[in-house]
What does this fold into?
Amino acid sequence: MTWGIIATWKMSLAGVTKAAELLANGRPSGDAVESAIEDVEDNPQFNTVGYGGLPNAEGAVELDASFMNGDTLSIGSVASMTDIAHPIAVARSLSHEQLNNFLSGGGANNYAQRHGFAVKTMLTPETQTYWGKQVRKNATRHDVINTHDSVGVVSLDYRGRLHTGSSTSGIFMKAKGRLGDAPLPGAGFYCDNHIAGVTTTGLGEDLMKGMLPFKITQLIADGLTPQEACDKAVYPFIDDLYHRSGHIGAVSVVAMDKNGEWGVATNVDFTFVVATDSLKPTTFLAKRAAGNTTTIEEAGI
It folds into this structure.
């Protein structure tokens, strides 16, 4: 049995490198997912996830995260949580509960604090200053700044266990309580040991309309490769939604199947990171190509 891990955006490279070492040493894929995402959550250079994430319209950093176990199909999600260092760890803990697997706002915070998860002020001086400038600049406007690069991870271990996870602070200047795709099963992630794991990144308001992770998983179950499934699900959806509404935000997906084969699809210049037992952690660049296909090349980063 092989092992592998795939994650959204070049910001995940350091985390994937750490997670790959765990997988190579026989650690469970759930540990790898959590480790990779926590690395991004801790890094204030990445202003769409965790510490240093850009705040909502009221100046608060609201955090969403999800975790799914492909063996049991257990899910844990948090939404609009504040000042907890590692939302992914809370989501993973919730996946072990029989009930109350998806908590939001004060309920998510209460759970995290009762279970001893680290409390941390997630708004940095830099992001607070930036928020203040934006408030003054847009005092009479309600523009949403297009920042929505969640970190999403799919991991496979030597025992054939698949897990997915995601974490985000959402779009800058979002309304209080706004949710995107990241914590929503089927829309932001899906995982089944018998088939594959899939996670998304992009504009949640559009990704929620596609249910792409679940669709891609089913296409792989029907015999398509992960790349074929990503292409077949994503590009017709993008074109159809644009035809219906006249606009569409960023949409990107990553997938890995039970054999460690992977695929991606996107409508932007999309970086992602892959590591397997035969591939060192490598950053790739994906773009949409002709004929509803995807071009992929090493990013050279």
